[in-house]
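Data deposition worksheet. Section B asks for the primary sequence of the deposited chain exactly as it was used as input, without tags or linkers unless they were present during the calculation. Section C holds the resulting structure in C-alpha cell form. Section D is free text for depositor observations; keep each observation to a single sentence. Incomplete worksheets are returned to the depositor.
Section A, Depositor: J.P.
Section B:
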Amino acid sequence: LWWSIYIRETWLSLAYGRPMRIDKDEVTTPILIQNEVIQLSRRSCDMLYQKYLPLEINNLVTLWLCLVRITVSLGYILNNFYGAKAARPTQQQIKSIEDNMSTYFRGILAKTHENQLITLHSLQMRVCIE
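Section C:
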C-alpha cells in the first residue's frame, strides 16, 4: 500500500509541477522483493487469491516493482534537482540515474509480448515513462 501511495504522489508531483509532499529521507518502508509481494497476496486466502488475481500475477508484480524503482529514481530527481534550493546534478549523478533507469526499462521491455494482459500493462508503463 505504501509504495502505491508513493507512486501516485511522485507522478502527480511531476504532472502538476509541484513539490513532493513525501520526503524520501523519511521513507522507512523497504522496497519489497517479488516473492514478498506474492506471499502477501496469497496470505489473504488461496480461494480469494485464485478468484480475484490474474494467473499472470508474477509478471505483473515484476512490472509493478520496476515501476516502484523508476518512481524512486524520479522522486530523487524531483527532490534533488527541481526544488527551490536544488543543486545542479554532476555528470556522475546523471550517469548513475541513467544506468539505473536503463536497468528498470529493460525489466519492462523483457515482459512485453508474453501475453495480452502483460503487454497491455507494460505498454502503458512505457507510455507513462516516455
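Section D:
Helices lie at 2-16, 34-43, 46-52, 57-81, 91-111, 116-129.
The chain has one domain: 2-129.
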